[in-house]
Design goal:
three-stranded antiparallel sheet, binds alpha-D-glucopyranose, Glycosyltransferase
């Protein structure tokens, strides 16, 4: 049953309008290339009306996978002067050009979903190919991004987390030396209001980290061991654990015994390792610096992905639900990217308050699965109301429901079709 057929039609129109032939741009102008986790969520939207196109979205992304297994965060299929940092700045020397970093590993979870909707046939060649791509990508994370050996995910650039400008990265970013950055021309503030975007000194740090990677020749070992930014991200740690569980289902269906064994071991490691992120004072899982071991102490929307990952003792879960109750006291619309009482909260600024529906979607799925259907329903209902009120924006104010960032956003349209508009 559709909630609003007009919005269904509009959402489909957005996806089709942002389709550049085998891949979808997140939004016209601001983000003119293919983004990794955007494509995963966009595939769920396409799957509601065009299965073939849904698979193609992911296949195009994976065609740019590196030999070492990394699936890049951006694929620059066509040049576009309206974006910084573009392919020449990254200088990865790849064809097609890509960035040198990755993004949240949600792909295996979505591949499993597409495959199950089509009847879960183990002989499905499209699933098989993507299974292998996801396995290689997960192995890349295990090889390069688990410096503590506890099954969690370290990121080497804040852009890898997908929650690019979250306050969780502030302390680690403050230590990044920007003296050698030089001059460059930002493009983002030409597309959207500067008050919504990162500040200049923050942007310099993002560029400095990029320049370190480039100077290393995009050597993922050097970047992981010696890079200027090394954070264990609560979001990606939860997402990879979930993705490993979903990949295991595929491995079992394919009779891949050795890979299944390997995945089970990774899952057990991450389940035990997750407590390293638990912050007693914040009563939540929080991102933590891999170098200084300092916890951010911040409760963000990613903290609630614990349910999606299926972790936490009964006591930890109860405390997370208390945090959710507290947050719902100050947010008209769940799920804000940062709690209103936190330092740096701003209901309009990127990842410092606004609601992103893809994170809300994952949190709601987890809450539903783990026995909190009323919270899942609340988040879903709020998400639908945001779109009904403001349209298909990139993000929304948790206070007023106003849209922020880019308009006609692909993954917001996809979330309507696949989730909150149903
Ligand atoms: C912003 C978001 C990131 C997303 C990208 C494209 O950089 O922070 O998560 O992938 O936009 O939508």
């Amino acid at each position: 049953m559709s909630r609003n057929p007009k919005l269904d039609a509009r959402a489909r129109e957005i996806l089709i309008g942002n389709d550049r032939g085998g891949y979808t741009v997140p939004t016209h102008g601001l983000y003119p290339f293919q983004w990794n986790w955007d494509s995963a969520f966009v595939a769920l939207g396409f799957a509601t009306f065009d299965h073939d196109r849904a698979w193609a979205e992911i296949e195009t992304l994976v065609s740019a996978q590196w030999e070492d297994g990394m699936i890049p965060h951006i694929v620059f299929h066509q040049d576009d002067e309206g974006y910084f940092p573009g392919p020449r700045v990254w200088g990865t020397g790849r064809t097609p050009p890509t960035s040198g970093i990755t993004q949240p590993p949600v792909l295996a979870t979505i591949v499993r979903k597409l495959w199950e909707v089509e009847g879960a046939d183990p002989a499905c060649p499209r699933m098989q190919r993507l299974y292998r791509a996801c396995l290689a990508s997960h192995r890349w994370f295990h090889t390069y991004r688990d410096p503590l050996g506890n099954g969690l995910v370290m990121v080497t650039h804040n852009w890898e987390t997908g929650r690019d400008n979250s306050s969780e990265w502030d302390d680690a970013l403050a230590r990044v030396d920007t003296s050698g950055v030089g001059s460059y021309q930002r493009r983002d503030t030409g597309h959207v209001d500067a008050t919504m975007r990162p500040r200049q000194e923050e942007y310099d740090r993002y560029v400095a980290i990029l320049q370190f990677g480039r100077a290393s020749g995009w050597n993922h070992r050097t970047i992981a061991d010696e890079g200027p930014f090394r954070m264990v991200d609560v979001g990606m740690s939860m997402e990879l654990l979930r993705a490993n569980r979903d990949l295991l289902v595929l491995a079992e269906a394919l009779g891949e015994t050795a890979a299944a064994q390997e995945l089970r071991a990774r899952i057990a490691l991450s389940e035990h390792g997750m407590d390293w992120l638990w912050n007693e004072e914040a009563s939540a899982y929080c991102s933590r610096d891999a170098t200084t071991h300092e916890s951010s102490g911040l409760v963000t929307n990613a903290s609630f992905l614990a349910f999606y990952a299926g972790v936490g003792s009964a006591e930890q879960r109860a405390r997370l639900i208390e945090a959710l109750e507290r947050i719902s006291g100050s947010a008209t619309y769940l799920l804000p990217s940062l709690e209103a009482e936190s330092r740096a909260y701003d209901h309009r600024r990127y990842w410092r308050g606004p609601v992103w529906l893809v994170v809300s979607y994952m949190a709601a799925i987890g809450l539903d699965e783990q026995g909190y259907p009323q919270w899942a329903a609340r988040i879903r209902e709020d998400s639908a109301r945001l779109i009904e009120k403001s349209g298909f924006y990139e993000s929304f104010s948790p206070e007023t429901g106003e849209g922020s960032g880019g308009p006609d956003f692909s993954w917001t349209a996809a979330m309507w079709l696949a989730w909150c508009g149903r």
